[in-house]
Structures are given as C-alpha cells and as structure tokens.
Design goal:
heterodimer; A: mainly beta; five-stranded antiparallel beta sheet; 11 strands; B: mainly beta; four-stranded antiparallel beta sheet; 0% helix; globular
C-alpha cells in the first residue's frame, strides 16, 4: 500500500520561509493534500494539488510536486507565529476510493 | 453547516469500562471515517463507511473496537472493555461523494480519551 513520510520537526524564525517536505511511494497518486492541525483541534485542509500539476500557489502557500521523485513540498512565505502547528501530508491513490493515506505530521515551530 | 460534530470532547474512564464516542457528519456527505491519533503511531485510519455501510475496517485494532452508522447523520465508535493503551485522540471525518478537491475530508474536533 501507499506509504507517506515526513520529517517530524521544523523550526524557523518569524518572517523566514518554511519548507515542509513529504515523500510518497505510489506513483498512481491522484490528489495530494496539506492539512494543518492546531493544538487541541482537528485537521483542516490547507491546500491540495492534483497530480497533473507541478506547482500551485495560494497566497503565502506554495505547493511543489515532483512526480518523478514522488516528492511533495509546502512552502510558507513570511512565516508567522500563528503558523505554528502540525502539518500533515495526505495522498489519495487511484483505486483507493476515498481513503487518504496520511504522513506522520511535521511539527512546525516559529521562533520570534 | 456546523461541520463535523463529535462528542464528548474529553472522556476519562477506568480500565474495563465501555466507552462510546459519537459523531455527526456534515449533512450530505456520503463517507465517514474514524481515525485515532497517538504520539507513537501518528494518525491511523480505523474504519470508514460509505452510505452508512462499513467498507474497510482493517484498521480496527481488535474485537474490543466496534463502529456503527445506523443512519446518514450519526455514527458511534465503541470500545468494550477499554484499556489504558486505548488512550488517544479519536477523530471523525466526513467527505462528499464528489468534490473538485478529490477526496477532501472534513475533520471534527476530536475526542480525547484517557483510560486509567
């Protein structure tokens, strides 16, 4: 089955850019997502990208998809303290109905 | 819509007791998912339903866990008997049958379960 991996921790200074990385194994992945989880809350969809795209930009967020290397990244420009949270990469694989495979999550800490 | 609603938000119970977690999905969503989140294992899919029918329960840890969806607006996850290792945050999520965003899942706030 699909395997999705992320690094566990990332620390950045306020105002810098953050880049959170994710790798996956199944080349038939169709949709790829980034979710954000704030303390004590559920996961909220931040952004997504369809597999026929290489890049998607949404305000401060930039998603890059390298299908050859099965690598997905989320860049947050001008990172703010409110961006501190856990970020999950999730992948929908063709043929898996609606079942998403989630990574372990990356804890982003923004330092003042 | 109020989003996915889970109850209770927090549950503390003694080992051996029965625990029932509840979920109300977003109206019109055909898919409902139960996840468990722990520090050690991250986010695990336990079971999911499509149109109230269980589709894949391969993530349910053992027979002590059971889930039902008697109608489109309500689902329960039951643990009987509960054990300390069941302590986790349990999330319910729902998803529409079709969406321009593929399989976008909407999550509830979660139930934090502590078994002592």
């Amino acid at each position: 089955g699909e395997d999705v991996e992320q690094s566990l921790f990332l620390s950045v200074r306020e105002g810098d850019s953050s880049v959170i990385n994710c790798t996956y194994t199944d080349s038939s992945s169709t949709y790829l997502y980034w979710y954000k989880q704030e303390p004590g809350a559920g996961l909220q969809l931040l952004t997504y990208i369809f597999s026929n795209m290489d890049m998607k930009q949404d305000q401060r967020l930039t998603v890059l998809l390298n299908k050859k290397d099965k690598h997905l990244s989320l860049r947050i420009a001008d990172t703010q303290t409110g961006d501190s949270a856990i970020y999950f990469c999730a992948v929908l694989t063709s043929g898996s109905a609606r079942q998403l495979t989630f990574g372990s999550g990356t804890q982003l800490t923004v330092l003042p | 819509d109020a989003g996915v609603i889970q109850s209770p938000r927090h549950e503390v119970t003694e080992m051996g007791q029965e625990v029932t977690l509840r979920c109300k999905p977003i109206s019109g969503h055909d898919y409902l998912f139960w996840y468990r989140q722990t520090m050690m294992r991250g986010l695990e899919l336990l079971i999911y339903f499509n149109n109230n029918v269980p589709i894949d329960d391969s993530g349910m840890p053992e027979d002590r866990f059971s889930a039902k969806m008697p109608n489109a607006s309500f689902s329960t996850l039951k643990i009987q008997p509960s054990e300390p290792r069941d302590s986790a945050v349990y999330f319910c999520a729902s998803s529409p049958d079709s969406s321009p965003r593929g399989a976008e899942a909407f999550f509830g706030q979660g139930t934090r379960l502590t078994v002592v």
